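Good morning C.,

I know you're traveling, so I'll keep this short. The sequence:
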Amino acid sequence: MAVVFGTMPAGVGEEAAVYDTTKQALAAGFRHLDCAEMYNTAQHVGRAIADTPGLVPTDVHITLKVTGLPTGPFEEVRARVEKLLGELGVERVGYLLFHFPGPRDLNVDGATPESVAVRAPLAWFRDHVGEAWRNMLRLRDDAGLAKAVGTSNCYQKHLEILVEQFPDAAQQPAVNQVFVDAVHQEADLLAWQAARGIKAMSYRPVAFCAGYAMLGEMGDPFAAALDRAAAACEGCTSTHQYVLAGLVQRGVSVCTSSTNPDHLKASLAAASLAQQQQQGDGDMLSCLPSSDMAVPCGLTDEFAAAWRTIGGAERVQETGGEASA
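The tokens, ready to paste straight into the viewer:
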């Protein structure tokens, strides 16, 4: 289940369309779905699962994210999760994550590093994560609503604080979901997680692939290098598939979405391509140079950038294997 289907709606007012896209993804063979309280699509995902012939809910691994840190009375947090499980038509999920290391009422639309830092600095996280994580552990252990619990949009400083407060290995997050793509490879963060047994999951791993072409027009070598690598990779059908396979090869589960059946099948095939390349010449993404123009051109996730600014280590890994300050 290295390739995950994302159930975020394409835009405001398009939540109901997620029923069709999810049903299409399940028909294509996806068996891991990424869901969130904030998406407001759980009821549509649940109907898609129920209406897929030959499929039972236990066949599907669901990652579910609750909005912000789940602080407050445990029974209130439990009620929120149970409502979502009811809409999904399942008794428990595979992964239950908190969506971001900030307060639930944080407005994430148009978030900037500056605005997020005001509401959710590391000091706020340090003061509130204990209460929130105890609720998460109770949802797993006492209520049985999740097989495992984890985090999302947490960077190394966030995770260091969490691990410091909960040093028992059984209480540490099973997975951390962050923005990782061909430009923002986050090798240092992923290595830190791997050393502690925290699995990696990426959201929006190919969201900006279509924009890479403009980089070449501006003299940035990144796009041409990616095109060459994908073209030289036996069995690879696109740069999108190459990036997905490269991340899967590194042990990263990738969340992707499409309404095109061929694209869905190609995304799923990235797992096989990664396995094939694992037996070949080594790391698929190490050949890519760094890109100086991607971020100035807007080819990045601004919400992720906000959390990265707050919680990132002093040196953050980018493409090409070189760290930048």
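Safe travels,
E.
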